[in-house]
Amino acid sequence: MPASILEGVDHLLGAVSTRRTSTRLSCPSCGSAHVAQVLGDNGGISYVCTACGHSWS
Fold first, then answer.
1. pLDDT interval class at 6 (50, 70, 90)
2. Gap between the Cα atoms of 50 and 32, Å rounded
3. Which terminus of the chain has a lower count of CB atoms within 10 Å, N or C?
4. Backbone φ, ψ for residue 38 (5° rounding)
5. Integer Cα distance of 25 and 13 in angstroms
6. Helix, strand or coil for residue 56?
């Protein structure tokens, strides 16, 4: 049990930070992290780089 609320929150924030960095995508063409997730033609998921326009699934 944490001694204070802040210690408990720090533990949760650390877990969220780790989760965000582990799921971050980057463009395979230019390496940019500016990637948007879009719905594909057949209902699949595709990705588009908003920096260079490259798309992939």
1. low
2. 9
3. N
4. -130, 160
5. 21
6. strand
